[in-house]
Amino acid sequence: MTALAIGTEKGGFLWRNGELTGPLFKGWKVSAWGRAPDGQYLAGLASNWFGASVHRSPDLETWEQVENGPSYEEGRKLNQIWTFCTSDSKVWAGVDEAGLFVSADSGLSWDPVPAFNEHSSRGSWSPGAGGLCAHHVLVDGDRIWVAASAVGVFRSDDGGQTFGRYDEGVPPGVTPDEDDVEEFGYCVHALAADPSRADLIWRQDHKGVFRTSDAGAHWEQIEKGLPANFGFVMVRDASSGALFTVPLEADVNRLPVDGDLAAYRSFDDGDSWERAGSGWPEGPHFTGVLRKSAATDGNGGVWLGTTGGDVYETTDAGDTWRALPFSVPRILSMAVL
Amino acid sequence: MLEPAIGNVRTVEVEGETLAAALDDLMAAYPSLRVHLFDEGGRLRTHVLCFVDGHSTRLEDSATTVGDRTEIRFLQAVSGGSLPGPSLPWSAGSR
Hints:
The complex is a heterodimer.
Chain A: E1 4-8, E2 11-16, E3 19-24, E4 29-35, E5 41-47, E6 51-57, E7 64-65, E8 80-87, E9 90-96, E10 99-103, E11 111-112, H1 114-117, E12 133-140, E13 143-149, E14 152-156, E15 164-165, E16 188-194, E17 197-205, E18 208-212, E19 220-221, E20 230-231, E21 235-236, E22 243-245, E23 247-248, E24 264-266, E25 274-275, E26 289-296, E27 302-306, E28 311-314, E29 322-323, E30 331-336
Antiparallel strand pairs in A: 1-2, 1-30, 2-3, 4-5, 5-6, 6-7, 8-9, 9-10, 10-11, 12-13, 13-14, 14-15, 16-17, 17-18, 18-19, 20-23, 21-22, 22-24, 24-25, 26-27, 27-28, 28-29
Chain B: H1 19-29, H2 34-37, E1 48-52, E2 55-57, E3 72-76
Antiparallel strand pairs in B: 1-2, 1-3
């Protein structure tokens, strides 16, 4: 691991070799981290006043804003970069207002993806509490999944030329009263794919925890052992096969059940879950983990950043956890770079 | 917050006989600044203020004449709180 990058409401921080450095980008929200095909590091910045932008760095020390970042024409606002996903020679970015952009030059310039951004269903898209955002992008060759809150999961099988909707088996967030009106508002919170089998995907949704083994064609609910089915996190550790989520009581009380902040882990692809290991805080902790505030190195290392600014670390796939020795502002994003 | 977009300084000199020309010169020299000052419609962002020699303007009259010593300042309008409703990007909902 070069660094654990931590994006907060008030700047970015780097945890390297037992030392915290930062804040980077003072005063800015750091909402996404990534690594471009040319090796440059990427950061997505946002401000309530000054818009959103993409920055690149060769060394995590010096950063430069790209001139041709993702942008919309008038009528739609680009409020925040939510995620970067690098695959082969391209970088994909999911943004708020919900949209998908792609860069073929390692993040220097970005083009909109019309098949997603102008999708035929867009008229029915409606924001959730976190905004109308495309927050997770998964890529496997020409197959691309995009998760948008509070809209649902979209999939392209042709490199982004067309997108279909893939929510079968998941209850909609909103069911219209009229029978002849399309259900809408599939409120996906997070996606994680099996690194060795891209069509095996787990989904933390507003309506529960789900799994698909056919690339999203069908979803099944998998919540045995969870204290609650609400939450925002889904992480797959490649080396151990462990899955992690952080349950919260309910949408109307987005806090750990009884203040018991802990990850829950599954070793059977989500068939059953148990409280993950030891090392969690002994006293009540009424903080949560947001959807992009989880990271894994794929080798047993998992990091969860809380809304209270703490980071919990495991390096043994969830058997033992510790709070890292610092506190930062509300954590919005994390990545192992 | 915008210093990195103009070379990590707070003040730069620009050329132009009108406010519009001066801003065009500024954007040509520092293109990364544009997204921070102007919205998708090319208007001054809601919470960005522009003062010309101490007078606030929303850039309604970009033909305003400027001279060699005219000072154009961009400031952040600090505003607190938020309106109810989930559609605001700064609303306090969970992500």
